[in-house]
Amino acid sequence: MLWLYLLGLATILTIALRRVRRRQKPLDDELYSKNIAIDHVHSGVAWVRGDGTFGSVNQSFARTFHFAPRELVGQEWYKMFPPELHDQIRAHYSEMLMGTVTFDAPGAGADGSELWLNVRLVPVHDHNLRFVGHHCLIDDRTRLRELEERVRRLSGEKRESRKPESPAAAMR
């Protein structure tokens, strides 16, 4: 009789477990697809804890700064910006506590390279509406900025070469 009781109990637990898994799977799929979408929309995505340290960093975010993702976890997030901008970054952080903030700022790679970033800070709250951290989304605009600078330089050189040096040169 005991074995029959245990068999019934095991059957009930198995059925309950299957139902829980069935309910959990769509949620897991939804979260997975959102994470994949975010990875493709932004160059980098990082979760920053309430204490200001990186909790997790995607591969693209870490690659932008020439780090491995594990190297950034636990580091203070605002240190990815030059020290002279830390006050300005803290001001943006204060604005972010009221809602999402987007700004452009220079950054620094691990190898000392200069970066130009478009940064979006998105506050995250728990179910009790307590602030628990924020998402830091970045787009690396370094290449775009270099191209814009090159176009400005070349267009400035063309304008200078069109100007005649003297009235006699203009007549030629």
Oligomer: single chain
Strand arrangement across the biggest beta sheet: 2-1-5-4-3
SSE succession = HEEHHHEEEHH
From the alpha carbons, calculate the radius of gyration and give it in angstroms: 27 Å
Mean pLDDT, to the nearest integer, reads 77
The first-level CATH class name of the largest domain: Alpha Beta
Q: Which structural class do the helices and strands define?
A: alpha+beta
- How would you sum up the global shape? elongated
The CATH superfamily label of the largest domain reads PAS domain
Number of strands: 5
Which topology of the largest domain does CATH recognise? Beta-Lactamase
Q: What proportion of the residues is helical, as a percent range?
A: 40-55%
Q: Between the first and last Cα atoms, what is the distance in angstroms?
A: 115 Å
Residue runs with pLDDT of under 50 for 5 or more positions = 162-172
Q: Note the total helix count.
A: 6
- The number of domains: 2
CATH architecture of the largest domain: 2-Layer Sandwich
